[in-house]
Design a protein that fits this description.
InterPro entries (chain B): GPI_transamidase, Peptidase_C13
CATH topology of the largest domain in chain B: Rossmann fold
Largest sheet of chain B: 7 strands, mixed
Number of helices of chain A: 8
Oligomer: heterodimer
GO molecular function, one term (chain B): GPI-anchor transamidase activity
Family (chain B): Belongs to the peptidase C13 family.
Protein name (chain B): GPI-anchor transamidase
Number of strands of chain A: 27
Largest interface: A-B, 52 and 48 residues
Helix content of chain B: 25-40%
Structural class of chain B: alpha/beta
Number of domains of chain B: 2
Keywords (chain B): GPI-anchor biosynthesis, Membrane, Signal, Transmembrane, Transmembrane helix
Distance between the termini of chain A: 145 Å
Number of domains of chain A: 3
Strand order of the largest sheet of chain A: 5-6-4-3-7-8-2-1-11-14-13
Radius of gyration of chain A: 34 Å
Strand order of the largest sheet of chain B: 3-2-1-4-8-9-12
Strand content of chain B: 5-15%
Number of helices of chain B: 12
CATH class of the largest domain in chain B: Alpha Beta
Radius of gyration of chain B: 24 Å
């Protein structure tokens, strides 16, 4: 009997140990604001042990990566309160900490290999990340778990990169309980045999619907990989995948009201929880009102004070749908303009014309305490910076009085890497302290380079996108965490040539040369000779001309 | 770095043209042969393998849309229609290289986000929810297209962007965009010439990268694009003959552009009805072309395809091979490359026999007509005036 109990306990311990070995979570947090907009945050976490296989683990292992973050974003109307992962700039942002000593090759070689591998994995043009647009920031992406003496950091962004279904497809295939898609879908004609149905396995990933996601005001898809080794052989890779989608039921519905349901927002329902038993699936709902609404659907949620949200737990193999109906469903549209963030960054272009320009970065600190921030600006080489024009002005947030900086607030460090054309970008990394309740403005001037004819993209007149500036907000106290803010992406127009001009010039000059050369050449080379008189018989109709020799011969 | 890449490409092209001498001869020789007899020969030779004697063991597709900008929506729809068809008929995503020069699905101008339709009725979304685009946007360049075909890639290029074919692969190459006589525009910025395509395919033949190729092109004067191809076992079809334009099929008022081209539409009408085990031949497909509907005369080139279009199944190129062949002995890759009849010898090492050299070097000698110089004197006042004008302009400009 005692032995039996021991066996049972041993079995239980081993089961729970194996469950703990690979913990996986998936959470969907739906956060509605008074304006009616619903931000859906799908968060997936999984840890891959040494013995398990995963495409991203393979990449992390192969290229010696400690930490890596990649995000694909479109749209700017991000709700910073509703997303826990922060708002990201449009396009692709990639940064990675890579081990210095790696058996295969140098950090730079592995960086380009990594971007190519990720390009293949995510069907994106990440291979356009080259040393020409990569930076090595010193103090912007510091990470507690990474030893900066053993690893190197690389950062790059592709602000023009689009995100579409072809990126979502491979991204969702990396999930532990991935979406299974039968075939092409969207059949309008009901009479047709529906041989293609958008299907999915289970979990919150079954809500993925490209039509809804890419119709959103803002969508951001990201992957974070971190690899931790307890010993030389025992390593685990933590993979976090987040998808943030800002949907607007007020815009989408004909009623223009705040009521919504999963079916309405995504056109789908959740197909039960994931059958993998170690996965925990939760759906959290945060609503703008404390009362005056009711939940639709069979299952009713429980309010969790700690999380400040209504919580649903999904059951295996049970269809799940939910919705919210308000008694007063009129949205508060004035709320949209308000922002409650303590620190904000805004960047814009100054100047006019296609020769000179300037950039103005405005950072406001609404906090009463001074905050230390690091501004990272990576600009392509064709924007020629004038560092002597870099200026800082700080004034009070309400009185607009210019503040004279004193004490520790004055301290600021500046790291500057000048650009080398076609080799590396210019990098400014500025650590400064922002006084409480202040606005700090940085300005600098630049010249636009006149780049080579072939360096222009096919749609050259559109302009060149420059990646967002990154503001790292350092923690004020030990309890806080460091976080990052991204500025706007700038579209800079460079002097663009008239691309047909070279052809005009070539054809014109060739014609002139041919005409001139041909005639002169003939005149020089050919010999003038008189005709034989015998050929010059007087024609019968030239009776009125007196017969004579043509060129004086005879 | 870029310069080096180009150097490699140029050298490759040069080696291809060297071999061209030999290959041209082959083509000419084969023209003289009885094609039906040849086809019968191949059929009996490949009797062991299924699929009408094609002898291929895997299928690949290279689908290229070369047009950027929203109003070229139809070109992306053309390419995606083909993508959908080959995927439906059994070629997996890993064997499809899809190149789309622009993003119309998630374009802000698209009223129906994440969709591409090829019909104004919008019955079928071509973009679907399971799509893998291998080259997109600025990546679709002439350089990358030739790299894909010839397999000369930079070091770190992932497998999904490579055409990993062997000498038993049947390849469908579909191209669409804006073209003219012997060129096709890429991204409205550069062009590929018919000689480039021909040389790339010749390199593929030398490197044993294909068994058979079906080259399809939907553009204006499309037939001029396949004119220069000289490698064996290439079948080509085009939307219009040299000198003709190709036209779009119809317009969607809500999308705001034409949604598909006529020739592709005509192909799809047939292809949509086929299933994986279908036994229809390419000859049947070509018979469905109706010039009065397509509004141009589709071009078909069969002289490099000795097997004959009557013996080639549509699924030889559009479908994925499902059969496996068991052999007792070790598999030799070059053995089954039947390609050429025994009596035709090809010299692909680039060296030519003296007789060959003579024929190649022999150029037509035109009898030069000697014109009396006096007639040229007419030009003298004109040239003098023009010269004066030029000098005047230069002098005026410099002052």
């Amino acid at each position: 009997m005692r032995r039996l109990v021991a066996i049972i306990i041993a079995a239980w311990v081993s089961i729970s140990a194996s469950a703990a070995q690979s913990t996986q979570h998936e959470t969907l947090h739906l956060h509605q604001r008074p304006s009616g907009r619903v931000t859906a945050h799908f968060a997936f976490a999984q840890s891959v042990a040494q013995s398990q296989a995963h495409a991203l683990d393979d990449i992390a292992r192969g290229f010696g990566i400690d930490e890596m973050a990649l995000s694909f974003t479109q749209g700017t109307r991000c709700d910073s309160i509703a997303t826990k992962v922060g708002c990201r700039p449009p396009g692709v942002v990639l940064w990675a900490w890579m081990r210095n000593n790696h058996s295969l090759s140098s950090v730079d070689t592995r960086w380009s290999a990594l971007t190519n591998a990720l390009a293949g994995t995510f069907c994106a043009s990440l291979n356009f990340i080259t040393p020409e647009n990569s930076a090595e920031p010193q103090s912007s992406f510091t990470h507690s778990s990474v030893n900066s003496s053993l690893s190197s950091l690389r950062y790059a962004s592709l602000p023009r990169e689009i995100t579409c279904t072809e990126n979502l497809t491979p991204w969702s295939k990396l999930l532990p309980c991935s979406t299974k898609v039968n075939h092409l879908a969207h059949i309008k004609d009901r009479k047709m045999k529906p041989y293609c149905i958008l299907g999915s396995k289970a979990g919150i990933a079954s809500l993925f619907n490209a039509y809804a996601i890419y119709d959103a005001d803002y969508h951001s898809m990201s992957v974070e990989v971190s690899r931790k080794c307890t010993s030389d052989t025992e390593c685990t890779t933590e993979i976090r995948q987040d998808l943030v989608v800002a949907l607007d039921p007020v815009r989408k519905g004909y009623q223009r009201n705040m009521d919504w349901s999963l079916q309405f927002l995504f056109g789908k329902e959740v197909a039960g929880s994931c059958p993998l038993n170690e996965i925990e699936t939760n759906i959290l709902v945060t609503l703008p009102k404390a009362e005056g609404f009711e939940f639709e659907g069979k299952v009713k949620p429980v309010y969790n004070d700690e999380k400040n949200a209504w919580v649903y737990s999904l059951e295996l193999a049970k269809q799940f749908s939910m919705g919210v109906k308000y008694s007063d469903s009129k949205p508060d549209l004035s709320e949209k303009s308000k922002s409650t963030e303590l620190i904000q960054i805004h960047r814009h272009l100054t100047g006019y014309g296609r020769e000179r320009g300037g950039i103005k970065i405005r950072i406001s600190n609404r906090d009463t305490k001074p905050r230390t921030v690091t501004l990272l600006e990576v600009l392509p080489w064709f924007i020629k910076l004038y560092m002597h024009t870099l200026q800082r002005t700080t004034y009070h947030i309400t009185s607009q009085e210019v503040l004279s900086l004193s004490g520790e607030v004055v301290n600021q460090t500046l790291k500057y890497q000048p650009a080398i054309p076609r080799i590396r970008p210019s990098v400014i990394e500025l650590t400064a302290t922002l006084p409480g309740e202040s606005i700090t403005v940085f300005t600098f001037q630049f010249d636009r380079a006149f780049i080579k004819y072939t360096e222009h993209p096919p749609d050259a007149n559109r302009g060149f996108d420059t990646g967002a500036a990154i503001l790292t907000v350092h923690p004020a106290s030990r309890t806080e965490k460091e976080y990052r803010l991204f500025s706007d992406v700038l579209l800079i127009a460079l002097p663009t040539p008239d691309f047909s001009m070279p052809y005009n010039v070539i054809t014109m000059s060739c014609t002139i040369v041919a005409l001139y050369f041909g005639t002169v050449f003939n005149l020089i080379v050919k010999k003038l000779e008189g005709l034989d008189d015998s050929q010059l018989k007087k024609k019968w109709w030239m009776f009125w001309v007196k017969e004579r020799s043509v060129l004086g011969k005879k | 770095m870029n310069f080096l890449n180009w150097l490699v490409l140029v050298l490759g092209a040069a080696s291809a043209t060297n071999a061209a001498g030999g290959a041209i001869r082959v083509v000419e020789d084969m023209r003289g042969l009885d094609r039906a007899a040849l086809a019968a020969d191949f059929l009996s030779a490949g009797a062991g393998s299924s699929g009408g004697g094609s002898g291929h063991t895997n299928n690949w597709a290279v689908l290229v849309c070369t047009s950027r900008f929203w109003f070229n929506y139809r070109h992306i729809a053309n390419t995606l229609s083909m993508y959908r068809t080959v995927k439906r008929l059994g070629i997996p995503d890993s064997n499809i290289i899809l190149m789309l020069a622009d993003d119309v699905a998630c374009n802000p101008r698209n009223h129906f986000p994440a969709t591409v339709y090829n019909n104004a009725g919008r019955y079928l979304d071509l973009y679907g929810s399971n799509i893998e685009v291998d080259y997109r946007g600025y990546e679709v360049t002439v350089e990358n297209f030739i790299r894909v075909l010839t397999g000369r890639h930079e070091e770190h290029v992932p497998r999904s962007k490579r055409l990993l074919t062997d000498d038993r692969s049947n390849i469908l190459i579909f191209m669409t965009g804006h073209g003219g006589k012997e060129f096709l525009k890429f991204q409205d910025a550069e062009e590929i010439g018919s000689h480039d395509i021909a040389d790339a395919i010749a390199q593929m033949f030398e490197k044993k990268r294909y068994n058979e190729i079906f080259f399809m092109i939907d553009t204006c004067q499309a037939a001029s694009l396949y004119k220069q191809i000289y490698s064996p076992n290439v079948l080509a079809a085009a939307s219009s003959l040299t000198g003709q334009s190709s036209y779009s099929h119809h317009h969607d008022m809500e999308i705001g552009t034409a949604v598909i081209d006529r020739w592709t539409y005509s192909n799809l009408e047939t292809l949509e009805k086929l299933e994986r085990q279908d036994k229809n031949t390419l000859a049947n497909l070509f018979k469905t072309y109706d010039s009065s509907v397509i509004l141009s005369d589709p071009g078909i080139r069969t002289d490099l395809f000795p097997r004959g279009i009557e013996n080639a199944l549509v699924t030889d190129f559009f479908g994925g091979v499902q059969t496996t062949e068991l052999t007792l002995e070790m598999y030799k890759t070059s053995e089954k490359q039947k390609v050429l009849p025994a009596d035709v010898k090809v010299e692909f090492d680039g060296r030519l026999s003296s007789a060959q050299k003579d024929t190649l070097l022999e150029k037509p000698r035109y009898k030069l007509k000697v014109v009396l110089p006096q007639t040229y004197l007419i030009n003298v006042p004109f040239v003098l005036c023009f010269g004066l004008l030029l000098t005047g302009v230069v002098v005026a400009g410099s002052v």
